[in-house]
């Protein structure tokens, strides 16, 4: 029998062009499959048994509590494990105990929050499927009101206000997890304490030519010359040389005393020899350019310019403050420091007054 013949025997009301029992949209006549609609909703055990709902609530709370404990363990790892402690873990091999503990505890903290939220949604929040017709992108006032009503209904069905145990433990877990980020920021490096305020210069330490490694005499500094110096005892092969020279680097110039404008600078100099930090006060670049006629030094990085005849003050560029001066004198024919710099060298930092 042909298709036409078969259709002729089918009652008119059962043709696929009609609406389904679920009042779905009309199906095109050339589509032989009607919209089956949504299946009947099956209630979960938590929906009909309050004891089961309580058990699920406790499980969710346990996940959030586990996250809180893992976050506390994450922070405690910084105290318990030294940074250089190595342990053997099969099959990972030899790894840092601190890194392993940080990874495990932070992973557990984040996983527990996610697992708790998923279990909450799967067992306690409403899971009834609702079909809604598509609508234009621009919502009508009635639709907006419906969305707000649906949101309020969803909030009510989630039990967020009624199930205080879940709510409070979730807030606790979410409040503690950000502390991991604070601890990670703290781990960017050791606290500077007072290391930024002091250098290797002390009373009685001789000035050594950085090029020749010989102690400097006043006659070694010619008018108009620029000489770089370091503290006596700081050797190039020192393991901490780069860290120390970054603060101790010194430059010396000889200016006619009558051309020195700053009174303190004149008192801290010797026969016109002035000593200033070589580290720019902008971002810490080494200063290396000197103009003999103007007594200006120039930082090659961002062109900050300082006047060495007027207290090392900034006359151009982004530097925030003057170059620190080192008080020097002469003993037994050699230049030496009277004290450390009166202020921290290099760029500004938060704790700087």
What brief labels describe this structure?
single chain; 353 residues; alpha+beta; Rieske Iron-sulfur Protein; 4-stranded antiparallel beta sheet; 9 helices; 13 strands; elongated
Notes on the protein architecture:
- The protein is an alpha+beta fold and 353 residues long.
- It has three domains: 1-37, no CATH class; 45-131 and 142-186; 207-337, Rieske Iron-sulfur Protein (3-layer Sandwich).
- 35% of the residues lie in helices and 14% in strands.
- A five-stranded antiparallel β-sheet has the order 3-4-5-6-11, with helices on one face. A four-stranded antiparallel β-sheet has the order 7-8-9-10, with no helix packed on it.
- Helix 3 (50-80) packs antiparallel against helix 4 (97-123) and helix 3 packs parallel to helix 6.
- The chain starts with a helix and ends in a 16-residue tail after the last strand.
- The chain crosses the membrane at residues 59-81, 101-121, 165-185.
């Amino acid at each position: 029998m042909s298709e036409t013949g078969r259709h002729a025997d089918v009652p008119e009301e059962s043709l696929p062009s009609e609406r389904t029992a679920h009042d779905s949209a009309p199906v095109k006549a050339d589509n032989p499959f009607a919209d089956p609609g949504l299946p009947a909703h099956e209630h979960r055990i938590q929906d009909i048994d309050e004891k089961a709902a309580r058990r699920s609530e406790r499980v969710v709370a346990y996940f959030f509590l586990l996250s809180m404990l893992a976050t506390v363990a994450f922070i405690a790892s910084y105290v318990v494990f030294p940074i250089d402690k190595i342990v053997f873990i099969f099959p990972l091999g030899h790894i840092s105990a601190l890194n392993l503990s940080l990874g495990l505890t932070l992973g557990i903290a984040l996983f527990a929050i996610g697992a708790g939220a998923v279990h909450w949604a799967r067992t306690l929040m409403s899971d009834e499927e609702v079909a809604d017709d598509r609508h234009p992108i621009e919502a009508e006032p009635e639709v907006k009101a419906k969305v707000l009503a649906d949101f309020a209904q969803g909030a009510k069905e989630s039990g967020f206000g009624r199930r205080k145990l879940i709510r409070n433990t979730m807030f606790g877990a979410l409040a503690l997890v950000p502390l991991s980020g604070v601890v990670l920021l703290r781990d960017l490096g050791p606290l500077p304490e007072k290391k930024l305020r002091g250098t290797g210069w002390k009373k009685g330490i001789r000035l050594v030519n950085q090029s020749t490694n010989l102690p400097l005499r006043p006659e070694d500094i010619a008018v108009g010359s620029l000489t770089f110096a370091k503290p006596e005892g700081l050797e190039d092969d020192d393991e901490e040389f780069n860290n120390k020279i970054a603060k101790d680097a010194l430059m010396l110039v000889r200016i006619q005393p009558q051309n020195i404008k700053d009174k303190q600078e004149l008192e801290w100099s010797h026969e016109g020899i002035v000593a200033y930090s070589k580290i720019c006060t902008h971002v810490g670049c080494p200063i290396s350019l000197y103009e003999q006629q103007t007594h200006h030094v120039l930082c090659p990085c961002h062109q900050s310019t300082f006047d060495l005849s007027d207290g090392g003050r900034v006359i151009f560029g982004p530097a925030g403050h003057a170059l620190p001066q080192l008080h020097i004198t002469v003993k037994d024919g050699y230049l030496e420091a009277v004290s450390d710099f009166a202020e921290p060298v290099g760029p500004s930092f938060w704790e700087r007054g």
